[in-house]
Amino acid sequence: MNVPPTPETAVPPPDAAAPAAPLGDGDRAFRMLLAAGGLGSRCKNGVGLGIDETGRAIETDAGDPRCLLVRRDGRWHPADGVSAQARAVLDLYLPIRPPGASGSITVAHLGQSLDGQIAAASGDSYYVTGPANLLHLQRMRALCDAVVVGAETVATDDPRLTVRSTAGETPVRVVLDPRRRLDANRRVFGDGEAPTLLVAAEDRVARQGERHGLAEVVGVPVQGRRLVLAALLETLHKRGLRRVFVEGGGTTVSGFLEAGLLDRLHIAVAPLVTGRGRPGLVLVERDRLCDGLRPAHRVFCMGADVLFDCDLRAAPSAGAELEPRRVL
């Protein structure tokens, strides 16, 4: 005998929308940073910030269970009652996009093996680091106004440089190609998913407003065969792109670091040994270890990977933290 289904056993129709999974504490904290914006500039000491059920940033009392950040001594701090996961997300990303901040920041990221390689000798880099670090990359894109990569990264990986696995919008995509050797068939130049700039040497730009696929071509001075990166940052800042994320590759990140243009450097180290390959940072050789860069840093666990968050503007002895903090 056929028994009519009870409400508990009834199967929803195929086109019924599945209920959205509740956000984890880390995702809520990240969405609050994205949403806080100018709200934080109006907050006085003792005021808190949280996020409501619609995803809107709100002012709260410090004791409110929705409170995630509290302003003390003119700075934002994770609220006392937040979970370990939310605290780790806030600790990592607050320096990138503190609520109410209007200044500029340039931060770079590399994902490498234990032996310092970002790819195999063939160029294969899928994937050096794991899913947690790949989510971190997309979060960094969402927090910043522009994401910068070099021509070699586009030639090898043909990346989209979009925000897909987290909240937030895709930033302006900036491809550094001094000699204009990339063709317009690369996805970043034709998918229309975000405004895109192709940055080339000034003498390789025929006219203002020139296009390379859908990308706008922008000229920047060169020194030798390399773009003057300080001039590049000035150009981006004039366009209102003040939070700049340098995503790769190794040559591009090394150039920004050697020029002293980075405020922070993220290096994710994966439990992988590749042997010979493509190194991450390649800098001017130092004869003595004491002349090397030993930045203030914090350490975060990202799945199986370990992220070093290096503050390049702090004194080397300041803020060093050896205890890992789990982000995901």
Put simply, the count of helices is: 7
Approximate strand percentage: 25-35%
DSSP summary, beta strand count? 19
Fold-level CATH name of the largest domain: Dihydrofolate Reductase, subunit A
Task: Calculate the terminal CA-CA distance, rounded to whole Å.
Answer: 50 Å
Known CATH architecture of the largest domain: 3-Layer(aba) Sandwich
Number of domain units: 2
Question: Could you estimate the helical fraction of the residues in percent?
Answer: 10-25%
Describe the sheet with the most strands: 11 strands, mixed
Evaluate the radius of gyration. Answer: 22 Å
Structural class by secondary-structure content? alpha/beta
CATH superfamily of the largest domain: Dihydrofolate Reductase, subunit A
Stretches where pLDDT is under 50 for at least 5 consecutive residues are 1-19
- Average predicted confidence as pLDDT: 88
**Dominant shape:** globular
Reading side by side through the largest sheet, how are the strands ordered? 10-11-9-8-7-14-5-15-18-17-19
Order of helical and strand elements: HEEEEHEEHEHEHEEEEEHEHEEEEE
CATH classification, class level of the largest domain: Alpha Beta
Describe the structure using short key phrases.
single chain; disordered N terminus; globular; 27% strand; 20% helix; Dihydrofolate Reductase, subunit A; 19 strands; eleven-stranded mixed β-sheet; alpha/beta; 328 residues; four-stranded antiparallel β-sheet
General description of the model:
The chain has two domains: 69 residues, no CATH class; 210 residues, Dihydrofolate Reductase, subunit A (3-Layer(aba) Sandwich), CATH 3.40.430. The protein starts with 24 loop residues before the first helix and ends with a strand. The protein is globular. The longest helix has 13 residues. By secondary structure, it is α/β, with parallel strands linked by helices. Helix 1 packs parallel to helix 2. The strands form four sheets. It has an eleven-stranded mixed β-sheet, sandwiched between helices. A four-stranded antiparallel β-sheet has the order 2-1-3-4. It has a two-stranded antiparallel sheet with strand order 6-16.
